[in-house]
Design goal:
alpha+beta; Alpha-Beta Plaits; 3 domains; four-stranded antiparallel sheet; 16 strands
Amino acid sequence: MPHHAYLFEARSIQPFLFASGRLADMVAGSDLLDELARGILDQALRACEVDPDTLPAPRRAGGALYLMFEDEEATRRFRALWRTLVAQLLPGIEPVDCIRSRDSAREAVDAGIAALAHMRNLRTAALPNPAPVAERNARTGEVAVTRDHKRDHEPVDAATRVKRQFGLPEYVGLAHKFDPDDRAEWPRNFEQDHPGSRRFPLGENGMVGLIHADGNGLGQILRVLSDATRPIPARYVSLYRAFSEGLDAATIDAARSATQKVLQPHTSGGVYPARPLVLGGDDLTIIVRAELALEFAEAFIEAFEQESGRMLESLRTQMEQAGVPAEDIDELPQQLTACAGITYLKSGQPFARGYQLAESLCVQAKQASRASAERGTIPSSIAFHRIQTSLFDDASTLKRREMETRDTGNGTVYRLGLAAYAVGQVDAGSMPRLSALRDLAEPLQGGALNAARLRQLATRIHESPDLARKEYNRWRALAEADGHGTDAAGASALSDFDRHLNALAGHAGDDLPFGPECAAEGDSKVRMRSSPLGDLLTLLALHGQDTRKETA
């Protein structure tokens, strides 16, 4: 008897969430997306006379559904209803779906996954097309369909209207997954004059860190499951669902752990300095007060490694009980890792582009992690950037425009920032670790070394590497001779600085705080020298170290 698989994925989720830039709209949108695979799906199945409790569902998390039906007509009936529901509830989302019928559930799901991958580059037309002359929502640029009478009759587009009409209490919404005990409340807006709701407790600089984290190595596990269940296709759905639900639980537990460790000690007036937006599968998107964002991302990744290790141990046991050969089970990794990108921006800047940059930084971190993993598990890592001028949504463009400068004399490119920093327990090889960057910042945060002159050095490198060398030599001479303490204290702090710089960049000479020359990515003819100096200055600024004012 053929098995009928219906696969659905919601894409372009982030533009849907961040379009208006209002935190309250983001919160409602994230709750709506989270509810999509839970209560909304159950109601849709019951409307098609299908029991959601007995329907085999290898995956139902976030914006992705893999459902198995026995009857082809029921499959098509559900698909028609689901498409209508998604179009009404999530206007602006890019839905992709397919039905595949095969002799086994494994073959049907595998064929469906391949079909969805093929659809990745296909864009559907947004219908109906708006009239040439139409009023638009000033925040999103989309055509207005109504007016919000609670906000000065603001023109509102279809997606924003749905988000403002939809609302879940905090104790059942997405944020509840981060704190099931409701130890504090979650903010709903950034506006200082907004009445009757919880404001985001910003720091003095008014900046937030937009974090996007994504797991590594899921493809390997799915391949193992598909190959291992080939001789026992009847166990495919149960094992796939065990992995999907286990992964979801591991991600939620990791988010809770990071919340308890980092956010709970920094509540202000009973309000968390953060707002979750996406949590499902191996994905996390959250807005955190700037000075806590890096610590939260690191805590989440470390907890994710531990929780995923427990999940995979449970999956091994279930595979063994299902009769999967030991050699196939041994193909599973011991744990999963994750990478994260963080965009630091003002609360009033466009979050849609900030997220795109965070996602691009996450990809950059993944590439750096893969390059450092000679064999075995890809290490976890974090890449971050602080927006100070223009807001780019692509990490490679950002590096070229703001972080790189070329020496007109010999053509060497100087980059003020490293690709990513390793975190977690997995061996990262020669990849620089985030702990080393914090060690590098310590003598500057404590005042043993002059941080203001390092910012001048970062400015001088764009003007002329020769001027930067003079500035750096002057900085070192002052540290050795006087610094901010005794001669011995200054010299000792400089020695520590050199040691940590060497751990990060592979060079600690008195030329410049840059690593040795190497071939640039994608062009072996271009020579490049990289330095953690830009990341160091970001770290200092986020923790209240004003490096713009030079001290004596």
